[in-house]
Write the structure tokens for this entry.
Amino acid sequence: MSDAQTTIEAARRRTFAIISHPDAGKTTLTEKLLLYSGAIHLAGSVKARRASRHATSDWMSIEKERGISVTSSVLQFEHKGLQCNLLDTPGHQDFGEDTYRTLVAADAAIMLLDNAKGVEPQTKKLFHVARLRNTPVATLINKCDREGKDPLDLLSEVEQVLGIATVPLDWPIGSGKGFVGVFDRLDRKVHLFAPGKHGESIVSETLLDLDDPGLEEALGSSLFARFQEDLELLDAAAEPFSMERFLAGEQTPVFFGSAATNFGIGPFLDRFVTLAPAPGPRETQGGGARAATDPAFSAFVFKIQANMDPSHRDRLCFVRICSGRYEKGMKVRHARLDKELKLAAAHTLLGRDRISVEEAYAGDIVGLVDTQHVLRIGDTISTDRGAAFLGVPRFSPEIFATLHLADPLRRKQLVEGLNQLAEEGAVQIFFRRGQGALDPIVAVVGVLQLEVLQARLEAEYSVRVKVERLGFAHARWLDGIDDPAKAAKAIVGTHVDDTDGHPVVLLRNDWELGVAERENPKVRFLSTSPLDATGTVQAVR
Ligand SMILES: Nc1nc2c(ncn2[C@@H]2O[C@H](COP(=O)(O)OP(=O)(O)OP(=O)(O)O)[C@@H](O)[C@H]2O)c(=O)[nH]1
Ligand SMILES: [Mg+2]
């Protein structure tokens, strides 16, 4: 295959994540984007219990039971000749680390707002995470089938709270039950929608020009008059859309719609895929960057997920391809281990269903089965000896617990399960010195992660545990010490080892941390493992 092919394929990739505060409708929108692209034919609305279907991207049993997303999922679809990789992320702050990692793999983001709630606290935090990497953000104001805030007020809320300029690229016609369509401000067409079956299938729409005499008749005179007023105001006051400013993360195009009824979703998707950027250069360690058009294959691992398929029980490593072309059975170099690795089959996923991939290009996200257990989050693989990509930062754990086994005979399964979940980054585990693998301490960023741990141990490893919270508040990896045993005597706190055998001290509060740092000026107290090369970030809380 020529390099020209690699360049053409990279240019038609669009890789984006959907972010928002919990419950704004990310998973529902994901489902509808799949519907509109033709990847699925009937959408199983997230909480529509009457049909016992669930959203394609919420596949874990705990996600189905609660109707929340616990982990991010990747879905592929093609739209208008563009190959899209869509990342649905969990909104709850306890799973913020997962969302953060996912954003590292994306080239653009869709920020979803609930029209009645506007910019919510978690939206704000995730927006700032996207901004750290200058990720272009498009805004979709969702739930327009319900009465919400005034559209103009929502725009100024986004501008004031998030500090980004807004440009409405479409505009809602009517509100709540009277929400009947959107006006596309770029091609100046009115899209009027006809109510469908609970949003399960694509809604039919009528396309009208602004000067179409049928428009006033369709809207009724008072809605028509209001619409005309809105338009005049927007055309006079709204700043023009600038692709450059959008790509620089300075301006966000805004759309209106309802993921529940599908109103506005078609026009949004059509427009969004043409605005979202193709994969660009990716920064590498040491200050360089690798172009997406580089013919050498390169990728990094941003997510590991075990047991997605109960009949396989294997671990899938999700990699984001940054350049070149993936081919089945290809040999790559593992940058951290500096050794050669033969790549097993790659998959893309639709919920739990795996689809084998023959070839993939820059921008694509594929799951590799890691039979040799050599990949971890942040690892770079490439066919040349190019520099490794900047890693995927971790959050420092703040909540600690021990687990009590209901059935002591299942200790082996517990250890297996914990190791697996630790590799996924779903929890971190620490071992007390001299106790081996017995009674490890588990550490997480948010309390809900402990509940997920409990549920997954039971569902995937048939291990029932009781969780007992411990009174620690900080974990610090010790750097610059010669002898861990001596350090344990000199430094206050509970001394443990992480899964790589690195010494860590657990501290109960800020005061203890202060004492430890003051009394040991030569020791560096790191908030994440030194193996996580790029260091830590502030938890998105
Ligand atoms: N009325 C209305 N309800 C919606 C719309 N979109 C989603 N919902 C409902 O909002 C709730 C949350 O939807 P989800 O799609 O699970 O939200 P989410 O953002 O994925 O939530 P997390 O993943 O837990 O953060 C569900 O009850 C949806 O049915 C919409 O356009 N209109
Ligand atoms: Mg969700």
The pocket of magnesium ion (ligand 2) is lined by residues 26-27, 69, 88 (CB under 6 Å). Residues 45-53, 533-541 have pLDDT under 50 and may be disordered. The longest strand covers residues 298-306. The domain at 399-526 is CATH 3.30.70.3280 (Alpha-Beta Plaits).
